Inverse folding.
């Protein structure tokens, strides 16, 4: 987007936020929620609060990133704790897992917001999210009347990154990051053990120098996906062996390098359910 259009989008969003007086921004530290937090903080100052929901599905590295980005923006940052694993409907991991997760997450956000005398909860859903074929989490957002300013003012994912660059946010080019449960194929239950193993596995691959990583857990079979631009490097025999050996030591039974690389929804592209 050109600078004038970026400023117009920001001004429109701020004009919608200001009458709300106080807002709580559901904050992951990703580019979408960071842009909403930056705009809200600029519009409302101390009356805009960022809130991160900490649970087993959030990698520790992402929690630390959220703390750092909130400091960068200058917005007050709070952390609330909850566990999706308390909900059997989430654990069973059917096609509506994201609905159950988002519903619990935003109920927790509203609970915390009420304690802060805040009635409006915002999130980072953007216009491009509507293009996905299956996004049950959007249903929860609608049901709970979460305000999605990026969606409301038709800001696409690329537009979000343009605004992030306008604000000089360090997350402007940060790859998308879904919760850890998205690495588990539909029908295989979500457990704390699986989530911890996935988080550890992805940390291992990231520490090998890759920037976009998913380790899919097919009931003990690890399938490694990396960004398209990193595929050739992962095919290096020395790196491949190191990755395989490392993941076997943390409890996987088999390790597969996905030749197609990272893509959204990749967990369900290999059926190994027993």
């Amino acid at each position: 987007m050109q600078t004038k259009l970026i400023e117009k989008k920001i001004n429109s969003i701020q004009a919608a936020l200001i009458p709300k007086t106080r807002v709580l921004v559901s904050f992951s530290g990703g580019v979408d929620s960071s842009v909403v937090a930056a705009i809200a903080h600029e519009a409302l100052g101390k009356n805009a609060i960022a809130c991160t929901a900490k649970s087993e599905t959030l990698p520790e590295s992402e929690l630390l990133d959220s703390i750092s980005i909130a400091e960068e923006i200058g917005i007050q940052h709070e952390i609330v704790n909850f566990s999706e694993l308390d909900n059997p409907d989430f654990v069973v991991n059917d096609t509506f897992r994201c609905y159950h997760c988002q519903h619990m997450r935003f109920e927790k956000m509203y609970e915390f917001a009420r304690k802060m005398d805040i009635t409006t909860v915002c999130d980072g859903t953007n216009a491009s999210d509507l293009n996905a074929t299956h996004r049950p989490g959007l249903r929860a957002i609608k049901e709970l009347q979460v305000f999605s300013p990026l969606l409301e003012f038709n800001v696409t994912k690329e537009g979000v990154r343009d605004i992030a660059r306008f604000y000089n946010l360090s997350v402007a080019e940060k790859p998308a990051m879904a919760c850890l449960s998205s690495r588990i194929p539909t029908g295989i239950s979500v457990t704390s053990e699986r989530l911890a193993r996935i988080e550890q596995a992805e940390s291992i691959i990231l520490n090998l120098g890759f920037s976009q990583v998913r380790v899919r857990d097919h009931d003990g079979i690890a399938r490694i996906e990396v960004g398209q631009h990193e595929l050739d490097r992962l095919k290096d025999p020395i790196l491949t062996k190191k990755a395989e050996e490392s993941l076997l030591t943390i409890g996987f039974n088999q390790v597969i390098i996905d030749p197609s690389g990272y893509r959204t929804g990749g967990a369900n592209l290999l059926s190994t359910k027993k």
